[in-house]
Amino acid sequence: MDLAVTDLRFHYPGSAFGLAVKTLTVRAGEPLAILGPSGGGKTTLLRLMTGLLAPDSGTVTCGSTRLSSLSAEARRQFRLQNIGLIFQDFALLDYLTVEENILLPMRFHPGANEGEKTGAQAARELSERLEISAHWQRRTSLLSQGERQRVAIARALAHRPKFVFADEPTASLDAGRRGLVMNLLLDYTRETQACLVMVTHDTELMPLFPQQLRVEDLTV
Ligand SMILES: Nc1ncnc2c1ncn2[C@@H]1O[C@H](COP(=O)(O)OP(=O)(O)OP(=O)(O)O)[C@@H](O)[C@H]1O
């Protein structure tokens, strides 16, 4: 399922900052990198593509679902079921354990990933691959930034979403773990034919992305 943006315009209320996207398609299985300077609008564009922010005009369509046609509650349900989000600040619940954080989206949406048992297995496998399984029962407040980042990545993928949005998911990682995370995200995208949209400053990662977009070209 592809993601399509058409004639989108957005301004933060009371701010001079705005974005305009005439047309953009993210094809399933072909990751898109969003690039640009700090404050350039990368996170804003990501939030518009996920329906966390509503555009002033234009549409974002995920597969056959037009996000702007949904109510806020229906958008939330769509996100829980179909979207994996890796936030820049991780957005973990630090009073919960690694296990509880990763399984959280499936608690809100038990049907995701064909039932909770399968989801729990997927969560365990992801935590092993991301080398955080040794911390499974620890609260995330006790983990390093790089470990917390990998918990956020496992949580975003455990319910096997069709659309994955990652805001600088390798920013807190050493070179080895950066490779681990990129391989996982790219393997996941290929195997599930998901759409992956990733914000990054890391120019070394550029060859991995068949599609690239610079936000400087979109500001209005
Ligand atoms: N809630 C908000 N209200 C008003 N302006 C905002 C809001 N959030 C962000 N902005 C402004 O919008 C612009 C784009 O911000 P955004 O966070 O999208 O940039 P970015 O490219 O992701 O930056 P960074 O690389 O530093 O994370 C900035 O000028 C920022 O100050």
**What name does CATH use for the topology?**
Rossmann fold
Helix and strand run:
EEEHEEHEHHHEHEE
Bound molecules: adenosine-5'-triphosphate
Biggest sheet record: 5 strands, parallel
Q: How would you sum up the global shape? A: globular
Content of β-strand: 15-25%
What's the total count of β strands? Answer: 9
- Structural class category: alpha/beta
What ranges have pLDDT less than 50 throughout 5 or more consecutive residues?
Answer: none
Helix content: 25-40%
Named at the architecture level, the CATH assignment is 3-Layer(aba) Sandwich
Strand order of the largest sheet: 6-7-8-3-9
Mean of the pLDDT scores? 92
Organism: Prosthecobacter algae
Protein name: ABC transporter ATP-binding protein
GO molecular function: ATP binding
Pfam family, one: ABC_tran
Overview of this protein structure:
InterPro entries: AAA+_ATPase, ABC_transporter-like_ATP-bd, ABC_transporter-like_CS, ABC_transpr_LolD-like, P-loop_NTPase. Pfam families: ABC_tran. This is ABC transporter ATP-binding protein. It comes from Prosthecobacter algae. Keywords: ATP-binding, Nucleotide-binding. The two termini are 29 Å apart. Strands 6-7-8-3-9 form a five-stranded parallel beta sheet, sandwiched between helices. The chain has a four-stranded antiparallel beta sheet with strand order 2-1-4-5, with helices on one face. It has a single domain, classed as Rossmann fold, CATH 3.40.50. Helix 3 runs antiparallel to helix 4 and helix 3 (98-108) packs parallel to helix 5 (145-157). It contains six helices and nine strands, in the order βββαββαβαααβαββ. It is an alpha/beta fold. 37% of the residues are buried. It binds adenosine-5'-triphosphate. Adenosine-5'-triphosphate binds next to helix 1.
